[in-house]
Specification:
The complex is a heterodimer. Chain A is α+β, with helices and mostly antiparallel strands. Chain A has 3 domains: 7-53, Uridine Diphospho-n-acetylenolpyruvylglucosamine Reductase, domain 2 (2-Layer Sandwich), CATH 3.30.43.10; 61-173, Uridine Diphospho-n-acetylenolpyruvylglucosamine Reductase, domain 3; 178-285, CO dehydrogenase flavoprotein, C-terminal domain (Enolase-like, domain 1). Chain A is built from 12 helices and 14 strands. By secondary structure, chain B is α+β, with helices and mostly antiparallel strands. Helices cover 40% and strands 42% of the residues of chain B. In chain B, β3 (43-52) and β4 form a beta hairpin. In chain B, α1 packs across α4 (121-144). Classes of the chains: A alpha+beta, B alpha+beta. Chain A binds chain B through residues 26-27, 29, 37, 39-40, 43-48, 118-119, 121-122, 155-158, 193, 222, 256, 258-262, and chain B through 52-57, 83-84, 115-116, 119-127, 129-130, 165, 169.
Chain lengths: 288, 182
Amino acid sequence: MIPAQFDYKAPATLDEAVALLNSDLDGAKILAGGHSLIPAMKLRLAQPQLLVDIARIKSLAYIREEGDQILIGATTTHYQLESSDLLKQICPLLPECAKSIGDVQVRNKGTIGGSIAHSDPAGDWPAAVLALDADLVLVGPNGERTVKAENFFVDLLTTDLQPGEILREVRITKPSGKFGHAYQKVPHPASGFAVVGVAVHLALNDDGSCKSAGIGVTGVGVKAYRARAVETALAGTSLDDNAAGAAVAHVCDGIDANADLYASGEYRCHLAQVHTRRAIQAAKARVQ
Amino acid sequence: MKLEGTHELDASPERVYQCLVNPEVLQRCIPGCERLEQTAENTFAATIRTGVGSIKGVFNGTARLQDMREPEHLRLVVDGKGAPGFLKGSGDLDLARTDTGTTVTYTADVQVGGTIASVGQRMIQGTAKMMATQFFTSLAAEAKTAVGEPPPQHGFFRTALRWFSGWATKTLRKILKPQKGT
């Protein structure tokens, strides 16, 4: 339970953090909330030479509106997202998702950027940013670039972040018109991680039919993914039980479901179908 | 833990088989393999530095080839351990001829223990699948070259890069460490 020796730097600005990270691409690691990295270090599963702590860069934690966008800084904690009155009004999926993460201590320290960049196969934020079709802003030694959430998650614990790059901001287009959100999750009884987690964003036409759907699924595969087949099947329907039931049958299409001691792949897929249906129903019921 | 999978390769079963029993090819294909030496007939010792995301570890182990029936079947028995845990198990590889090349089907039964198994249990299967895919992607590139031809560029480049970055890191650390102490 004692980590290997490492150096620690707490830069004051993001530029400094990028420079420090690039001073030792092999051995340096970004520390934000530390709720995945520190346990791995204590078990010596991860032994970085240098920790670059970005949680102390105050200008990286924010939630604000800008035009039709919601901008969220990478080191915004789960608790800040959970308790944001602004988000509760304009994008309730985010506070709902935040509320389901771990426990109070985890939510007070853990950050949205850390969770997304770590890309735990059972992390909650990846599902939410996929459902909302978020853009992720990455900064590296050669400047900034923006990646769609869908293209960001590459494989198990593997993202499009290149060595030397830091996730800086999450950008979400403000939901408009008639829309409803829901996050449904089966938490692992010990860890609180999602055995299955489904985030749903529904946009409705004036007649109540489905204009478009965004569905992010976590816990099932090696990475969180967008259930495109379900989204397509829902579009244009009245979102009644028949339509939702038929659509959710496709939630595991093309996915090699995880199996571990707690849940087999088949069980996970079944849970994913049940909870996608429930999330669709809940999101529909909340449409304003 | 049971592992299963199939991979399509664009080369004849004979060529794929040759690659699978060639230590030099294997070293280039196994993700993070730093050393692979033949210690006896069909027995190899290996050092593998591998990981996903921030989780990394060095494993030392042996691999034995059994039930060798060229070019359709071989059995691999592995036993390894490292700081994060240990693994041992065996797997069967079946090579079937297809119109475009070879289908490799593998089934393996592997026991993983130690820290990695107690805390990383939910990710072990995903990690294994990811590495198998990396291995077979590299193997597919290797198998496409004819016997005696130089190995594929990306494999060579990666090996050279890995060697260089390892060397550079070690050298830099050697230079930097004493100064830190003063």
